[in-house]
Amino acid sequence: MKKRNHGIRDHIYLLLNEKDQYVISYGIEFSEFTYSLSQTMNNLLLLKHQFEEGEMNMHTMFEFVSRDYLTQLAEDDVYGYGDFCWIDFEEEEALNELPGQVIAELLYIGHTKEHLRKPFYNHLSNRYVYLAHDDGWLNKVYYRDFNDFYRMLGDVIPIKMEQMKVEKSILGLKKKKSYPSVPQESILALKNLMKEGLVISLSDCEQTRAKISIPLWSIGDFTNMDEMYDEFVATSAQSPCEAMLVFDKKTREWQVTGC
After folding, report:
1. H/E/C letters for each residue in 26-49?
2. pLDDT tens across 200-243, in order?
3. Which residue of 63, 115, 229, 247 is 20 to 30 Å from 238, comparing CA positions?
4. Which domain of life does this protein belong to (predicted)?
């Protein structure tokens, strides 16, 4: 099994498309996605991957991962796969009943990362379609229910803060701090910014004794993440942030404020 060896991404970019029910992102990895949403996932049909422990389904000619192997897959170096694409499903028996048209659509979406129709199938009862190139660099995830996305994002932000050890003691020594999830109402307050292309810049957070403030910039629509980052650097250097995601250290509560 290949272990992850790249660093923590300290910016999150999000482009929300409500009409077609997907989010394009930078900075959120499969391991973080799984940490938050594993209870909503049973099995994964692997459309593009290099996981060595998958089982073959002879009807679809796709490999799949049962729920028992989700943790092992999340610990693998899926970034190193290049393309990493999957769709979740409830029961293996359903794979053997998939119509040829659906199999063709899955081949298409795994190859092009574009849908022919919204990729939610009654046979599979899937909640997600996860399409990544260099996982965490460029991800496109379809959500049957956007509440799953809002919950996942609310979990991922404090996970990254803990990994980055954003707080320091008075002596300057790093200390690990556990943060609560960002509540859905705070995430929903960012919805319009996410529709325009939002960067959550954890590396630029500001701290006082009372609070931690994470700046947020709206920078536009991107699918090329090199161009996204260049635009973020230019925008953040020239313009104040659009909003702040603020954690109150005393009440341990989150809120969204203006800059």
Report:
1. ECCCHHHHHHHHHHHCCEEEEEEC
2. 999 999 999 999 999 999 999 999 999 999 999 999 999 999 99
3. 247
4. Bacteria
What is the per-residue burial (b if ≥16 Cβ within 10 Å, else e) of 141-167? bbbbeeebbbbbbbbbbbbbbeebebb
The greatest distance separating any two alpha carbons of the chain, rounded to the nearest whole angstrom, comes to: 64
Cα separation, 222 vs 88, whole angstroms: 26
The answer for 82, left when phi > 0, alpha when psi is -120 to 50, beta otherwise, is left
pLDDT at 164: 81
Beta strands 243-248; 62-65: pairing state: unpaired
| pLDDT (0 to 100) of residue 178 | 85
Q: How many other β-carbons are positioned within 10 Å of the β-carbon of residue 121?
A: 18
Cα distances (Å, whole numbers) of residue 70 to 13, 45, 81, 163, 242: 25, 12, 16, 22, 37
Q: Which helix (H) or strand (E) holds 211?
A: strand 211-218
Kindly write down the DSSP assignment for every residue of 40-91, as one continuous string.
G--EEEEEE---TT-EEETTTTEEEE-GGGHHHHHHB-GGGGSEEEEEEES-
- Beta carbons within 8 Å of 55's beta carbon, 6+ residues apart: 63, 64, 65, 66
CB distance 206 to 165 below 8 Å: no
For residue 220, the model assigns a pLDDT of 97
How many CB atoms within 10 Å of residue 56? 10
Q: Which of 18, 1, 21, 109 is nearest to 62 (CA)?
A: 109
Q: By 3-state DSSP, what share of the chain in percent is helix, strand and coil, each rounded to 5?
A: 35, 30, 35
